[in-house]
Amino acid sequence: YSAKESGEGYRFFTEEMNLRAVERMELENSLRNAVQNDELVVYYQPLVDSRSRILGMEALLRWQHPALGLVKPSVFIPLAEETGLIVPIGEWVLQTACLHTKKLQALHHRSLHVAVNLSARQFREPDLVACVEKALRISGLAPECLKLEVTESSIMENPEEAIVKMTALQEKGVRFSIDDFGTGYSSLSYLRRFPIDTLKIDRSFVSESLANQDDQEIIRTIIMMAKNLNIETIAEGVENRAQQEFLNCQGCRIMQGYYFGRPMTYDDFRDILKYNLE
Ligand code: C2E
Ligand code: MG
Ligand code: MG
Ligand code: MG
């Protein structure tokens, strides 16, 4: 039963499973070569408004391993973090996503923004600001079209440093989202100290939003508080129409999820943009 046949990437490596030492070393070695061998691919998942119009996309990394098939980020991102490989890989993702976005804007004559995930390790890098500026410079993408997704925990590691870096980029026009919001421990009033443009409501609340009263209440509270602070909300993991309607009613403006589109290749994303009215 091969990985390719399963269609879900290599079945052996699951999130729950600790990789055996040998497998880990093998994976680590091949990850080292993945960038040079052109095995990394950036996928794009649409971000839509309440009328299902595409406003932008999130860049999501995939590893097309020659033997293992498509390896999911939940397997190799933690490994890339531990080894530090996430730094060159993350820089490559940033540059690729900016270049692709600039191309799509030109091709379709429309304004699109791209959201790029930054890992804690990347965020800690002293030259983060220069690295982002470089990606903008070589792509020619307007800074306003780039959103960086950070997690609560990565900015809380060193809040003072985070504020300095985020402010420097914000002054250039770059915006920030808090990813997986609601899963950390920080309160919104504390997060207000950071220059944050968007909160992404974690998928776990959205997926239970129809069945679970508590999750509904959490979503309502996040949206209401964000609105009072003039912060945008994005719901991630929207999988059906009922969830979309619930979120719409609560005043969530932007959504992302399989219901609107799965992460896809640049070419596929370019093609679906043709049929999506601005
Ligand atoms: P994330 O940033 O929270 O990204 C959203 C994840 O939810 C993606 O998983 C996406 O495919 C998935 N998703 C979106 N809509 C739905 C839905 O309706 N249902 C379900 N079940 N899932 C949905 P993915 O692509 O596997 O990425 C997982 C995580 O890996 C990301 O979570 C992010 O933390 C990390 N990641 C991905 N690409 C990068 C990258 O370039 N750099 C870094 N540092 N991390 C990345
Ligand atoms: Mg994200
Ligand atoms: Mg997220
Ligand atoms: Mg998430």
UniProtKB/TrEMBL annotation:
Residues 24-277 form the EAL domain. Signal peptide: none annotated. This is GGDEF domain-containing protein. It comes from Desulfonema ishimotonii.
